[in-house]
Amino acid sequence: MRAAVYAALAANERPASAYDIAEAVSRAEGRRVVANSVYRILDLFVAANLAQRVESANAYIVNAHPGCLHDCIFLICDRCGRTDHIDDDRISQDLRGAASAAGFAPVRPVVEVRGLCAACTES
Length: 123
Fold this sequence. Notes:
InterPro entries: FUR, Fur_C, WH-like_DNA-bd_sf, WH_DNA-bd_sf. With about 120 residues, the chain is of the alpha+beta class. It has five helices and five strands. It folds into two domains: about 1-60, Orthogonal Bundle (Arc Repressor Mutant, subunit A), CATH 1.10.10; about 70-120, 2-Layer Sandwich (Dna Ligase, domain 1), CATH 3.30.1490.190. α1 (about 1-10) packs across α2 (about 20-30) and α2 (about 20-30) packs across α3 (about 35-45). About 20% of the residues are buried.
């Protein structure tokens, strides 16, 4: 089941919800797969750094750099839905430092920038 969920997630060019993945796996396997099962598997993938959660969309993407442990900054296109991520440790450290200075113990910064990707800006 984990392999099927990963394959369905990897087949998407854009972030996919657990419901999208459950539907794809259900079609591929010819049996009904519920989103709750997919959520549990996606949580395992996120914990293992194999997938990343796009918080604002409640969706997931395959982690293109599973060996890296950066705080990702997601760039989300409002027109086409394309989601890219960049790693900028300086920004992450600044966010963590600001949170610590305010007496907050940061665990995982979530930074998402919404706008238009280069392709949508040109069209």
